[in-house]
């Protein structure tokens, strides 16, 4: 039984352990914290989760295929509920005996045909062990990044300066004037939190105004209709300007454009501007409870100067300016092979490298949208490729994947969830064919990419997957009936023509036939 080291016991590490064990591997999970759950534990040493934080993805899309959330779970659950879910998942698959808590990995290095893992136990004892395979599953968002601002170190506001990673208690900012710098998800959520919990003044400064998507529109979670199989296929097949135009039309139709609320107008190209989900931010801007400013030009004591020449005296500054990729435990040899820096890591489809057999990553790619379904697919792909249940990507395929990735270095790095999920599913051999499931065609093409929808066919398919896939798609109204809407029919016709895909044409024809769908 080949031994595998997994670094991290968050969602990615746990789901990797579950699927590797199923494929006959003997995984050992190294976790520096006191319990499983990763960021979702809320441990301030390692987590950027604040006590009142809720998910920005619906619970149907924040779940693995084997275990839905219990009945009565909020559509957007608390971080504590997600942590409890991960604990139950670890218990269900008997993963806890495989997890070494309070164990810090110091180095992963190549050693012959395998890898040596050097680590420190909770008692300070230093050890090393050999493994045939290594999976890095430590997450992308662990090392806060703060941009250079002239005079930054001179800031003297009484409530201090912090990164959103360290935000815990809105009470300390009550009655204060707070600047939240950045337009990331956390920056928008925390600015909203402060505006609704008693901050005297909230200023949001950003380098570029993003389009902001509400988390739920007309009762439908946005992640049920934004991250779809149709969107993944369209991005592969249609011109980039068409994809951008269609996405912008969806965002502005469901959530409006920021300038309608009193925020700056974003760039016309939505990919250039970027997207972030937040339910309350733009309405609070419209109410005057959050004021938008351009980026910081400098800081002098408590006075902050902005790029438009204006200035504000503030009591606190919170930076929501993202994270650096942080993999300090990789040996210099492995770092060179992967060409790792603070934003990039050379991998084929975010997973494999041709010169590092037995090495893989799960969930360290920057992604827009729900992570749980995509990291489960990535874990299944790794497990199937290493066990031989599915053909592993060839060296030629991996080198082509590296070339595609390197061509994007220096540009936007975030990948939409639907693109990642479909890529991983194809590798794992579990991407369902909508033509085989006519009663599910609308759900599979235009409904949520739920984890259970990838248990319809291929390895480890489940007999109840069709029913559960339909239930998730209908649960919040994304797919109320199996019948395509006129807009969806037109979109599918356009996609079928662009792809020259006879299968999509037959789906359209079948759904048009009287009585074809019950």
Descriptive report:
There is one protein chain. 32% of the residues lie in helices and 18% in strands. With 518 residues, the protein is α/β, with parallel strands linked by helices. It has three domains: 3-143 and 325-420, FAD/NAD(P)-binding domain (3-Layer(bba) Sandwich), CATH 3.50.50; 146-321, FAD/NAD(P)-binding domain (3-Layer(bba) Sandwich); 432-512, no CATH class. The strands form eight sheets. A five-stranded parallel beta sheet has the order 3-2-1-7-22, with helices on one face. A hairpin with a 2-residue loop joins strand 13 and strand 14. The radius of gyration is 23 Å and the shape is globular. 46% of the residues are buried.
CATH architecture of the largest domain: 3-Layer(bba) Sandwich
Helix share, percent: 25-40%
Shape: globular
Q: Provide mean pLDDT, rounded.
A: 94
Low-confidence stretches: 513-518
The CATH topology of the largest domain = FAD/NAD(P)-binding domain
Give Rg in angstroms.
23 Å
**Range of strand content:** 15-25%
Task: Output the number of helix runs.
Answer: 16
Total number of strands: 24
The major pleated sheet works out as: 5 strands, parallel
Helix vs. strand class: alpha/beta
Distance between the termini: 48 Å
Domains, number: 3
**For the record, what CATH class of the largest domain applies?**
Alpha Beta
Going by CATH, what is the homologous superfamily of the largest domain? FAD/NAD(P)-binding domain
Widest beta sheet: strand line-up: 3-2-1-7-22
């Amino acid at each position: 039984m080949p031994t595998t080291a997994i670094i991290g016991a968050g969602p990615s590490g746990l789901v990797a352990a579950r699927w590797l064990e199923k494929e006959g591997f003997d995984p050992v999970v190294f976790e520096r914290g006191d319990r499983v759950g990763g960021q979702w534990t809320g441990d301030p040493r390692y987590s950027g989760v604040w006590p009142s934080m809720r998910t920005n993805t619906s619970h149907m899309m924040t779940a693995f295929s084997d275990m839905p959330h219990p009945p009565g779970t909020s559509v957007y659950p608390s971080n504590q509920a997600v942590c409890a879910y991960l604990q139950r998942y670890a218990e269900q698959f008997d993963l806890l005996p495989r997890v070494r808590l309070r164990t810090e990995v110091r180095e992963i290095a190549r050693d012959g045909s395998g890898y040596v893992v050097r680590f420190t136990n909770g008692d300070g004892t230093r050890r090393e062990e050999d493994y045939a395979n290594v999976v890095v599953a430590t997450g992308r968002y662990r090392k806060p990044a703060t941009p250079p601002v002239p005079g930054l170190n001179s800031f003297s506001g009484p409530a201090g300066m912090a990164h959103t990673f360290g935000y815990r208690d809105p009470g300390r900012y009550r009655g204060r004037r707070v600047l939240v710098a950045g337009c990331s998800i956390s920056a928008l959520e925390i600015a909203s939190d402060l505006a609704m919990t008693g901050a005297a003044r909230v200023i949001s400064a950003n380098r570029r105004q993003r389009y902001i998507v509400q988390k739920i529109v007309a009762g439908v979670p946005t992640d049920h209709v934004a991250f779809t199989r149709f969107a993944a296929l369209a991005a592969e097949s249609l011109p980039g300007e068409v994809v951008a135009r269609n996405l912008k039309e969806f965002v502005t139709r469901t959530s409006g454009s920021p300038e309608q609320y009193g925020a700056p107008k974003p760039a016309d190209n939505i990919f250039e501007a970027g997207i972030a989900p937040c339910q309350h931010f733009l309405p609070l801007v419209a109410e005057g409870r959050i004021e938008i400013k351009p980026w910081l030009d400098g800081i002098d004591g408590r006075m902050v100067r902005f790029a438009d020449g204006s200035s504000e005296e503030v009591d606190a500054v919170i930076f929501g300016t993202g994270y650096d990729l942080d993999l300090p435990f990789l040996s210099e040899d492995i770092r060179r092979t992967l060409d790792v820096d603070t934003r990039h890591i050379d991998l084929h489809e975010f997973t494999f490298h041709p010169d590092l057999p037995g090495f893989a990553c799960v969930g360290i790619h920057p992604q827009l949208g729900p992570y749980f379904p995509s990291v489960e697919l990535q874990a299944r792909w790794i497990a199937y490729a290493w066990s031989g249940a599915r053909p592993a990507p060839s060296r030629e395929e991996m080198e082509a994947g590296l070339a595609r990735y390197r061509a994007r270095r220096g540009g936007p790095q975030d990948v939409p969830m639907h693109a990642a999920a479909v890529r991983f599913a194809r590798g794992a051999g579990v991407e369902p064919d909508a033509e085989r499931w006519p009663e599910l065609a609308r759900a599979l093409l235009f409904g949520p990419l739920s984890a259970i929808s990838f248990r319809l066919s291929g390895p480890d398919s489940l007999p109840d997957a069709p029913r559960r896939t339909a239930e998730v798609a209908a649960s919040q109204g994304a797919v109320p009936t199996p019948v395509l809407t006129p807009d969806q029919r037109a979109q599918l016709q356009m996609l079928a023509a662009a792809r020259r895909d006879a299968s999509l044409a037959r789906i359209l024809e079948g759904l048009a036939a009287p009585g074809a769908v019950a």
